[in-house]
Amino acid sequence: MTTLGLPAAPRRAPRPRRPGRLILLGLLALLLLAAAAAAAPWLAPWDPEEMDVIGVMGPPSAAHPFGSDVMGRDVLSRVLFALRASLLVSTSAVLLSLLVAIPLGLVAGYFGRWVDGAISRALDMILVLPAMLLAITFIAILGPGSTVAALAIAVIYLPILARVMRTGALVVTRNDYVLGARARGASHLRVLLTHVLPNALGPVIVQASILAAFALQLEAGLSFLGLGVQPPTPSLGSMLADGRDVLTQAPWVEIFPGLAIVAAVLAFTVLGEGLRQAFDPEGVAE
Amino acid sequence: MSGPLAFVLRRVLVTLPVLLAMSVLVFLIIHLVPGDPVRTMLGFRATDATVAEMRHQLGLDRPLLDQYVSWLSGVLRGDLGTDLVSHASLSELLAQRLPVTFELAGLSMLLAVLVGVPLGVRAATGGRWTRRLTEGFVVLGVSVPDFWLGIMLVILFAGLLAWLPPSGHVAFSDDPVGNLRYMALPVLTLATGEAAYILRTTRSAVESVLGRPFVTFLRAKGLSPRRIVQGHALRNAGPAIVTVIGIQVGVLLGGAIVIEQLFGLPGVGKLIVTGITQRNYPVVQAGVLAIATAFILVSLLTDLIVGWLDPRVADAAS
């Protein structure tokens, strides 16, 4: 068919998939970033709060590889500490969301009927507002801060993660081995934990990894607005806000924190894509 | 009852409870503030009398249901209350701010569609290099936070090249060219990420249509590839693309909050953020209400367009 020179021939599965490589690459990058963040107190060449009055907005140099900011603080040291706050907020948000979404989705998909209806409708309420607006509404109520930001992001992801868990549970529950386990007299709880959960968890983990990438961006956005991580703790988003007024004179203050965000987002995205190819071939995760 | 009219009616009816639920949520913002919201607003140095007066002014001393009903009827009449700091009418404030946000979101979406759809079609039909280049654009567009992209664009276009102003705003009615100059960078910022999403959706939608038997038939019939893509593939991929555009409008309105702050645009997003830092709850409520309503109405419009593009959707729903 393609010999006719038609460019639009159906092209399915054009390349062999190597999910292992992507997972390894993503994990490696993440581990590297997490290690750098965890070891910030030892790795950072300067105290992130220390102000060098003479070196205000100094360009990158041997002493300050990423330059220094408006208050003469070392950008590299601040990026390392900020990475800590950003990774902590985004990953704890996703973990918190998983902790609630997994039981809800599992129960909804397994029991179905009115249980499913009630849980699904309640979670749909959260989707009434766009994600960023919902996060900001949350912060308007509870006040700015990193805990509230993590909580807000967790709430936003609740319906998404619960829906993926629900779909997985729904499919797995239809299997004969579930019926068999019930016939043998296993309790609902036992069936859920030993049969349904392990077999339906794949897509949820995939989705969580993809959402972690977005959580980093959301957290950075909130901190940029001054609504997330509060000073003096540096976060990648608030560093970008600090350098906003001098960005043409001292672009390094803006470039490096942003590159750190992009690196972390890419690491989660690559990991998520690898996991998706390996554990969610049918594409249950969105 | 069936047919297109029934579909439209049904969709509109389904939207009403959603709007109602959203209004309850927005109304509750001030009531969910831990502790005493009036105390929080006025600070701890305020006298009890001032607090009591403010509470009365906001109607917070009345029963909850009573408050909701009078707030909602006010909203429906176009009365959103007053700004606690400037004492301006919130309806008038929104009337000034909304056009800025809508212009930003509208132009960004327009640009994203104009770039994303053709590139998506090319990605679905083109050669290896086209695929690789577009895939690279998608990965970067999705991974780079939009406000950081905005900062980089400012460094390039306002700093190094000095072609465009770094931030600020003039009304379109005052100076159309100046307005667009100020809007150029924010729009480019928001549109890039959106274009990546639309490209990806268009690519996979067109790809899946091209794999269907009727396309093989059209090919056998001797139709040119161009006509197959433009006349058939894109037509069938339309509903999927429109659906994603509708969802992305919500993302765009959310992203606009950050972008307005970055570029100093006096839109609703900036209003909400200032409202939060000043603990000016009525302002926050009005802003969230406006953006959320716009989002819900766009979702409704999207569903209606999808039903019109693909009558099977409308039939299935009836």
Automatic annotation (TrEMBL), chain A:
It is found in: Cell membrane. The chain crosses the membrane at residues 87-111, 123-142, 148-165, 249-271. The keyword Lipid biosynthesis does not apply. The keyword Transport applies. It is a multi-pass membrane protein. Keywords: Cell membrane, Membrane, Transmembrane, Transmembrane helix, Transport. Residues 83-272 form the ABC transmembrane type-1 domain. Pfam families: BPD_transp_1. GO terms for biological process: transmembrane transport. GO terms for cellular component: plasma membrane. Belongs to the binding-protein-dependent transport system permease family. PANTHER family: OLIGOPEPTIDE TRANSPORT SYSTEM PERMEASE PROTEIN APPC (PTHR43386), PEPTIDE ABC TRANSPORTER PERMEASE PROTEIN (PTHR43386:SF25). This is Dipeptide transport system permease protein DppC. The lineage of its organism: Bacteria, Pseudomonadati, Pseudomonadota, Alphaproteobacteria, Rhodobacterales.
From TrEMBL, chain B:
GO terms for cellular component: plasma membrane. Residues 98-306 form the ABC transmembrane type-1 domain. Keywords: Cell membrane, Membrane, Transmembrane, Transmembrane helix, Transport. The chain crosses the membrane at residues 12-33, 104-125, 137-162, 182-199, 240-263, 283-309. Its main location: membrane. InterPro entries: BPD_transp_1_N (IPR045621), MetI-like (IPR000515), MetI-like_sf (IPR035906). GO terms for biological process: transmembrane transport. CDD domains: TM_PBP2. It holds the Pfam family BPD_transp_1. Belongs to the binding-protein-dependent transport system permease family. This is Dipeptide transport system permease protein DppB. It comes from Rubellimicrobium mesophilum DSM 19309.
